[in-house]
Amino acid sequence: MPTSETEEHKALRSAVAALGNRHGRPHDPAQLWSEAGKLGYLGVNLPEAYGGGGGGISELSIVLEELGAAGCPLLMLVVSPAICGTVIARFGTDAQKQHWLPALADGTRLMAFGITEPDAGSNSHRITTTAHRDGDDWILNGRKVFISGVDIADATLIVGRTEDARTGRLKPCLFIVPRDAPGFTRLPIDMELSAAEKQFELTLDDVRLPADALVGDEDAGLLQLFAGLNPERIMTAAFAIGMGRYALAKAVEYARDRQVWDAPIGAHQAIAHPLAQAHIDLELARLMMQKAARLYDAGDDTGAGEAANMAKYAAGEACVRAVDQAVHTLGGNGLTREFGLASLITAARVARIAPVSREMILNYVSHQTLGLPKSY
Questions:
Q1: What's the DSSP call for residue 372?
Q2: Residue 314 in contact with residue 284, Cβ under 8 Å?
Q3: Among the four 220, 231, 248, 323, which has the fewest Cβ within 10 Å?
Q4: What are the Cα distances from residue 173, in Å, to 37, 114, 182, 225, 230?
Q5: Is the pTM here over 0.90, yes or no?
Q6: Between the CA of residue 249 and those of 5, 72, 175, 256, 342, what are the distances in Å?
């Protein structure tokens, strides 16, 4: 597996960095989203036949990382093109692809993703949102929490469960629910974290959907679900790495310029070494993210699953440490609005707990990779 980027990837990284630096922090997410869509960056992972760039998660992760490194990450990149766009491109009908993919690629439409539930937590097998047939239609009932961007999304890709006709057991299935579907309501969650993308609790109360709202094969739910969850983990890693790079760059600039007594504070190893360690951690996390993206783009869903979880874990840890060290380097200035680091203290924690906790990733690696017995 190559460890250096192609010339095309380097050019993409440079171009997206230029866009991000033009917007910077703070920024207008809607304006940035629109411009990124017009430039073709939002759909780099989607098929060319539907207006995308014909690339994969490798390319889309570059877009998110560079925007984050410029201080203007777009969280909905994780959701709309990465999860929803990927699932529809791989498993959607021709009609679903024609309707959604060109608009997701150019940013004129957005799609949210609803899997988390109040009582299920990280256990997707306990999802209680159900779908049952009523003639040719589907009827959905259930609740979702911590669903990002529902207020700006045209539809939400909802993970529900249907009954297997052969076994009677419930299995996951994916449904496209329009934002104005009767019985589909949203309630903002009062978050202390300040972010452009808001979080919502969703209620589905006898939401009636046509047969073509189902994405993919009714009997291949887990395969289709994880086709979206692996990109989610890879893109979360990109989000965290970009955020960590932004914080580290601010700290390095400050350590070069800030002079106490006779030398810049960056000349002291107590300042320099932790920043160097933060850079190493971020670079290592990026390598695992790139490995995961390449495996996924090559169609190795099993290999990508392990690597994507490891990448998300490593990036979350590296991001938290980089932000903490950046704030510590600036001292009191690290908590001022002028330098824009204090808000990252909370934001960096998101990469540790979402979309899956550190502990569940360790469970995955211990069970799936090391072959140790399950503890639950």
A1: P
A2: yes
A3: 220
A4: 29, 12, 20, 8, 17
A5: yes
A6: 22, 14, 42, 11, 15
